[in-house]
Each structure stands twice: as structure tokens, then as C-alpha cells.
């Protein structure tokens, strides 16, 4: 894969990530818009490390090579904030000192500077995740499922090019997990985003519906 061929979606070309002399990851993959690549593998196999590389926040203790491109734009040398990767973690990581609405408005790109417009976009995103009347609420008063939906609204307003999901459903109970999976994948599809999902859960992988990359199957081997 060369970088002058423009391929729709997310392309991971010749990614290798090393920790000392141990190669954790050797991967080439393409993820089309609205599709999900699920990454599975045992604890410590490098799943979060792969997301950190794609997002641009890989710890310098790792050595990495390869290119991450999206719609033909090479992200590899861009700062994390310029990559526009929307990330959801296991923990929703809401700012405790801000209202729910302010948490979401915070992620609206700085190019939209009018406060009233930022507030309107945040309110619209909260409605999209069925939290219409929650803008004034203190995050501490929300249930786990509600916090997860605020985190999703915050990612959606940030105008991401792709979504990176690091076990975002694993702290939710079965019923909520199913709802949240469906909400996240529907929103990603609506926005035409390629998604990388890291999970330990086969049901998450099945519900994502895309290709499954098993980290333990290639780690340490030649690609
Ligand atoms: N900053 C760091 N310095 C040194 N080693 C690290 C660092 N971060 C991660 N590692 C090591 O890199 C390897 C991969 O870690 P990573 O967190 O990517 O695994 P994972 O597959 O996401 O695991 P889990 O499923 O438990 O979250 C592990 O052996 C881990 O100990």
C-alpha cells in the first residue's frame, strides 16, 4: 500500500509496534466508512497500544513504524488534536467540575466560537443520545449508562474522522451494554465513520458486525 493511492476509509499500512526487542503488533488493515474492525486478544497483547498509535498518543517507550491514513490523508505525523480521532474509553472521563452540557460543548471544535452555537450543538447532541433535559445536570448525579451517553455525545460534536473504542461497554450491565452498542454503532454509521473497537467480549464483536483481528494470532510473528 502506497500513500499516493487514495483509499476510502481508514488504512493501517505496515504498522509495527515494538517494546524493546519484542514486536507487540504487526498489522495492515483497511476499515471502510461506517464499518467496524474489532481487535481482540489477551490482556497485555497491545490492543490499547494500537489505539494510542492511531490516536497519536503512543508512549515514547514504544518504537513504531507504518502509516495511518484516512481518506488519503496521512495522520502519522500529525499531533493528536489534528488527527480528529474520537475516543471512548471504559471510563466516560467526564469533567466533574462542569455541567453535562458544558462537558459536551467543550469538545465542539474551536472554529465554532460563538457560545450560543456551541451550547446549541451540545444540546442537539444530548438529544441524539436521548438525554434531552440533562444539559444543566452535574455529571456526579448521572447513572453509568447516562455518563456513557454523555461521553458519546461529546465525541460526536468533536467532528471526528474516525472512532477508537477501548472497551467502552465493559462497565455496563447486559441490558445497557446492548443499548449502548446499538447507539454507538448507529451513530458511527450515520456519520460514516470507520471504527476500531477493542474488546474482550465476543458479543461486542458479533454486534459490531465487521472483521475481527485477533492480536494473539500474529503478535511476535512475521506479517
Ligand atoms: N508506558 C508503558 N511503558 C512500558 N510498558 C508499557 C507501557 N504501556 C503499556 N505497556 C506494556 O505494553 C504491553 C501492551 O499493553 P496494552 O495496554 O496495549 O495491552 P492491552 O492488550 O490493551 O491489555 P488489556 O486488555 O489488559 O487492556 C503490555 O505488556 C504492557 O505492560
UniProtKB/TrEMBL annotation:
It comes from the Bacteria. The keyword Transport applies. The keyword Ribonucleoprotein does not apply. Residues 5-222 form the ABC transporter domain. Coiled coil: none annotated. GO terms for molecular function: ATP binding; ATP hydrolysis activity. Keywords: ATP-binding, Nucleotide-binding, Transport. Signal peptide: none annotated. Belongs to the ABC transporter superfamily. PANTHER family: SPERMIDINE/PUTRESCINE IMPORT ATP-BINDING PROTEIN POTA, SPERMIDINE_PUTRESCINE IMPORT ATP-BINDING PROTEIN POTA. This is ABC transporter ATP-binding protein.
Amino acid at each position: 500500500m502506497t500513500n499516493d493511492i487514495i483509499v476510502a476509509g481508514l488504512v493501517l499500512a505496515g504498522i509495527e509496534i515494538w517494546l524493546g526487542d519484542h514486536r507487540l503488533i504487526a498489522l495492515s488493515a483497511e476499515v471502510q466508512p461506517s464499518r467496524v474492525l474489532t481487535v481482540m486478544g489477551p490482556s497485555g497483547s497491545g490492543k490499547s497500544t494500537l489505539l494510542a498509535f492511531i490516536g497519536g498518543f503512543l508512549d515514547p517507550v514504544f518504537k513504531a513504524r507504518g502509516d495511518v491514513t484516512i481518506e488519503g490523508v496521512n495522520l502519522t505525523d500529525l499531533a493528536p488534536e489534528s488527527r480528529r480521532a474520537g475516543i471512548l474509553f471504559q471510563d466516560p472521563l467526564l469533567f466533574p467540575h462542569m455541567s453535562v452540557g458544558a462537558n459536551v460543548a467543550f469538545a465542539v471544535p474551536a472554529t465554532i466560537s460563538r457560545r450560543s452555537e456551541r451550547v446549541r450543538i451540545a444540546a442537539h447532541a444530548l438529544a441524539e443520545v436521548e438525554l434531552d433535559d440533562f444539559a444543566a445536570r452535574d455529571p456526579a448525579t448521572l447513572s453509568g449508562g447516562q455518563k456513557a451517553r454523555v461521553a458519546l455525545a461529546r465525541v460526536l460534536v468533536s467532528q471526528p474522522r474516525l472512532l477508537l473504542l477501548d472497551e467502552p461497554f465493559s462497565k455496563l450491565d447486559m441490558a445497557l451494554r446492548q443499548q449502548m452498542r446499538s447507539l454507538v454503532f448507529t451513530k458511527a454509521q450515520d456519520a460514516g465513520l470507520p471504527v476500531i473497537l477493542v474488546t474482550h467480549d465476543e458479543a461486542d464483536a458479533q454486534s459490531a458486525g465487521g472483521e475481527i483481528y485477533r492480536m494473539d494470532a500474529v503478535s511476535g510473528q512475521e506479517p
